[in-house]
Amino acid sequence: MTDLKDILLEMGYSNILDNGRELRMRPIYRDSKNNTSLCVKKDTGKFFDFSAGITGSFEELVKLSLNLSSIQEAKSHLKSKDFSSKDLTPKPKIRQPKKIDKSILSDIEQDHSYWLNRGISQKTLQTFQGGVINSGRMKNRYVFPIFDSKQNLVGLSGRSLEKNPKIKWKHYGSKDQWKYPAQANFNLLKGCDKCFLVESIGDMLKLWEAGFKTSIVLFGLGLSTSALNLLIKANPKNIYICTNNDSNKSFNSGLDSAIKIETKLRKFFDSNKIKIKLPPKNDFGEMTVEEIKEFL
Question: Which among 64, 84, 207, 209 would be 20 to 30 A from 29, CA to CA?
């Protein structure tokens, strides 16, 4: 059986970068100066042209690359080379977030005073169905439920109501599998002009209040595979990395993380779409709505 990379080389692709689970290259079926904008998965043969927003099977890539008239013609070409995408290793099953019994939400008290005092309106808070829990693992926290695309409860994220808490945010569930707040803004994210990557729900709420509703919460300083998948699916025109600005400390962990996220995103998006834009204060939560509007 002919190797996947050999087939690509034979079709005219060159300078193919082996990136572990995928091959990266410049597309030959359109004008491009980006040497990595075309991605071909080794396990399935599926291709992604991130700059052009095109994706499909390996047969479809062959059809595009060789300017063939049909998929059947592409399959015939591959067959003559003793190659079939069916022979590739099957894609591993995606690990699904563990479902949580929704009965836990019955303990939520509709007390929004914590966020109201921080400039978040009742209307915004109602969108995210949060409230205070006074018992259990989330005791004395304002909790936000995290839902998947089928409205299954897959997590809880709670902000402490104490004055100087040791742990500000506590999470229940697999946060690396969360896509938040896609339950409220997925349709807004698709093809949006600007998508903002922020560390916490508090940042997202303040952006939402200021009219910027196309954000994704990282729940920390890293970009999870789930958040990356959401970004790829949404395919925004511009991505703003807005981690916290820790310039008042000896080490700016927010900036350091933003640079790492930018490097990771460049493997999937054109670099001119990605911008690091740290808030002028520590985070958006410390800014007024007017300051955010002026800044963005």
Answer: 84
User: Looking at this protein, which amino acid is placed at residue 31?
Assistant: D
Residue 97 lies in a domain: no
Q: Minimal CA–CA distance to 146: which of 166, 170, 162?
A: 170
Q: What is the pTM of this model?
A: 0.69
**Arithmetic mean of pLDDT, 167-195:** 95
Q: How many CB atoms lie within 10 A of CB 294?
A: 11
Residue 191 CB contacts under 8 Å (≥ 6 apart), including other chains: 234, 235, 236, 237
Residue 237 is part of which domain span?
182-295
Residue 142 has pLDDT above 60, yes or no: yes
In a domain, 41, yes or no: yes
134 domain-assigned = yes
Which long-range contacts link 173-176 to residues 24+ away (Cβ below 8 Å)?
173/97, 173/98, 173/100, 173/146, 174/97, 174/98, 175/219, 175/220, 175/224, 176/224, 176/225, 176/226
Whether residue 148 is found in the same domain as residue 220: no
